[in-house]
Structure formats: C-alpha cells, structure tokens
Amino acid sequence: MSTEARDQYQEILQGLYTLLARFPTGNVELKEQTDLVADMGLDSINVMELLQEIEDRFDIIVPLNVMSDIRTVQDLAIQVQRLLGENS
C-alpha cells in the first residue's frame, strides 16, 4: 500500500472511530479488529444509522449488498476506501 493510500486509510479509520464512538461500546476498545456485531452489539437499526452517517461524512453511497462482507472496523474502513477510490 502506498504512503498516500495508507494515510487515506488512517484518516478513514479515525473518522469511523469518531462515528462509532456515539454507539454504546461498553468495555470494548475500538480498534481495527473490533467486530461491529459480536463485540459492539450493533443491531440492524444501528448499522443503518451508521451507514447513513458514513455516507454523509465521506460523501459516498454504500450499497447494502457490501454489508455482508463487513464484519470488523477494518473491513468497513477498507470498503469505504474502495468506494472513495471509485468516486474519484
């Protein structure tokens, strides 16, 4: 991964941490391997709210069919980076 791509990934990750922090995390520390459902306990309504916030923050559209491939914060960051690349 190039330095530019790595920097973009880190910015996306920080943005996601900010968005995820508004959801109750209990004693779970947000990190790349944090599972959105198993660790954070996000339900389908939380996921839909999160997707809306991601779309607004990053100015992208997240197709619902990609959600089946997203389990962790890292998976989500990679998907956002991919979608940003498609829009540029």
From TrEMBL:
Keywords from the UniProt entry: Phosphopantetheine, Phosphoprotein
Known InterPro entries for this protein?
ACP-like_sf, PP-bd_ACP, Ppantetheine_attach_site
Q: Where is the Carrier domain?
A: 7-84
Top-level lineage group: Bacteria
Ubl conjugation in keyword set: no
Name any one Pfam family assigned in the record: PP-binding
Q: Does this entry carry the keyword Phosphoprotein?
A: yes
Q: Which SUPFAM superfamilies match?
A: ACP-like (SSF47336)
Q: What is this protein called?
A: Acyl carrier protein
Q: What is the originating organism of this protein?
A: Thiohalobacter thiocyanaticus
